[in-house]
TrEMBL record:
UniProt protein name: Kelch repeat-containing protein
Signal peptide: none
InterPro entries: Kelch-typ_b-propeller, Kelch_repeat-containing
Organism for this UniProt entry: Flemingia macrophylla
Residue ranges crossing the lipid bilayer per the database entry: 12-31
Keywords assigned: Membrane, Transmembrane, Transmembrane helix
């Protein structure tokens, strides 16, 4: 018998081929086994973390990363006497009047605190009328009188009131005004051409957007009419918008459609989550009483009705909320300061806040941008809301005209 000689290199090749074939068979078995297991469970969407904001210590999913912005130097000032969420604030010269708001979901404030920008102190607390709403207020001033319109009466997700009041800030005296035709939550409110304008907000069930627009002639804290007049409806309804008048033009910025509602049958009107749509829309009411769309905000933003200040012919907005996270469905807070230049009609992101926060109460005095109160995030890596705060912060702000 003749043996055929086999080269060592050929033998190694055969062994390698057999090994690869065996590995393929085992891998195919394992894949089939694991895929049959996975198909019995619902798929999980995993959004990778974005590291485009590593310098700020914030790591969010790519879809909800903070907007790029320069760091601002914030100084922590004296905190407000009480924490408040969904409160209201009006600045008159060097004083910031801070109204109402939730202390907790089960407790609401019914007084006014006053911050003095000159000496950076709180003081001068006084009570609100017992019939006045405690949150989701419409509010505006003519420089002395503060007009307070509608809002939610009580804690949790209780119903709204149509009651309307005016405060004389020099005497601290309150006066009634004609009630709004229908109660609303957080309507856009401004004084324009001698009339008190109230637009949008949420309807009586707290969720359905209102489109109605009413106005009332007022002067020196008094109503000149007994009834509100219907005006051109706002193109898109909903609460929690900034409303600003500059150079005889009325602007309505941001906001949302939908809000939490009272749980059906709940004796305490317990808040229950509902679908919300936060938007970037910016509208202007022009000389001909027609609505015009302007360039949208850098990203959807709501809960900003008292989060703005006028600086060098720009509207500066501090914090807010954006669209809910697509996986967790939790609210996502904003942590930026944005600017709308009224000369160029362009938006800019001009700085970061110490943390993400909504329903801030904002003032501007002697070159300093201030904000207080609201509800902040859970931390750098979690933009959902947690703690209701009373902190006061300020930063030096200079904008190009």
């Amino acid at each position: 018998m003749v043996r055929v000689p086999v080269k060592v290199g050929s033998a190694k090749f055969v062994i390698i081929c057999v090994g690869l074939l065996g590995f393929a068979v085992v891998a195919n078995f394992l894949w089939a086994s694991s895929s049959s297991t996975l198909t019995s469970k619902p798929a999980t969407l995993v959004i990778p973390k974005s590291h485009n904001n590593a310098s700020s210590g914030r790591f969010l999913s790519a879809a909800y990363a903070d907007l790029d912005a320069p760091q601002l130097r914030w100084q922590k000032m004296a905190a407000a006497p009480v924490p408040r969420l969904d409160g209201a604030a009006i600045q008159i010269r060097n004083l910031l009047f801070v109204f109402a708001g939730y202390g907790t979901i089960d407790f609401v404030h019914s007084h006014v605190d006053v911050y003095n920008f000159t000496d950076n102190t709180w003081g001068g607390r006084f009570d609100m009328p017992k019939e006045m709403a405690h949150s989701h207020l419409g509010m505006v001033t003519d420089g002395r009188y503060i007009y307070v319109v509608t809002g939610q009466y009580g804690p949790q997700c209780r119903g709204p009131t149509a009651r309307t009041f005016v405060l004389d800030t020099e005497t601290k005296q309150w006066r009634d005004l004609p009630p709004l035709p229908l109660p609303r939550y957080a309507p856009a409110t401004q004084l324009w051409r001698g009339r008190l304008h109230v637009m949008g907000g949420s309807k009586e069930n707290r969720h359905t957007p209102g489109l109605e627009h009413w106005s009332l002639a007022v002067k020196d804290g008094k109503a000149l009419e007994n009834e509100w007049r219907s005006e051109i409806p706002i193109p898109r309804g909903g609460p929690h918008r900034a409303c600003v008048v500059v150079d005889d033009r009325l602007y309505v910025i941001g906001g949302q459609e939908g809000d939490f509602m009272a749980k059906p049958g709940s004796p305490i009107f317990k808040c229950s989550r509902r679908q919300e749509v936060v938007y970037t829309d910016v509208y202007m009411l022009d000389d001909k009483m027609k609505w015009k769309m302007l360039p949208p905000m850098p990203k959807p933003n709501s809960h900003i009705e008292f989060a703005w200040a006028l600086v060098n012919n720009s509207i500066v907005i501090v914090g807010g909320t954006t669209e809910k996270h697509p996986v967790t469905k939790k609210m996502v807070l904003n942590g930026e300061v944005v600017q709308f230049n009224l000369n160029t009609l362009k938006w800019s992101v001009i700085g970061k806040l110490p943390y993400r926060v909504k329903t801030t109460l904002v003032g501007f005095w002697n070159g300093w941008l201030y904000f207080t109160s609201g509800q902040r995030d859970k931390g750098p890596e979690d933009p959902s809301p947690k703690k209701v705060i009373g902190e006061m912060w300020r930063t030096k702000l200079k904008l190009n005209e």
